[in-house]
Input
Amino acid sequence: MILVSACLAGLDSKYNGKNNYNGYIEKLVREGKAIMICPEQMGGLPTPRDSCEIACGAGGDVLAGKAKVIDSKGQNQTEKFLKGARETLKVARLYNIKKAILKSKSPSCGFGRIYDGTFSGKLIEGNGVTAELLSGNGFEVMTEEDIPKK
Output
């Protein structure tokens, strides 16, 4: 069983109310091989919502209390991102899942590269809050960029 970002399976859960459909991910879900999650929704954010980025760091810094997740209007959404990450970890443990395919560049799900917190489209090395929490707890994390696009 694999944990997957719901937006990749075609669920309209993205910040702008749309999705990031990937046929391979949808197939995994349809075949019962994957469980969909959206950490941002699980943390209490609505869809659609203002876009968010991690200011002054990455997911590990947020988990350590050294950085914040800020939306495009300047509102602090850190607690909702932390709650969503913790709830995602609970789901993964409940289903005994050890692998996740998450949405690249996201402040929640990004793995390896995320937006830099300036809302300018610039990428930095680092993980989103959920990806960092999962990785730090021994989960294999990858993004849709690592799999077929079908």
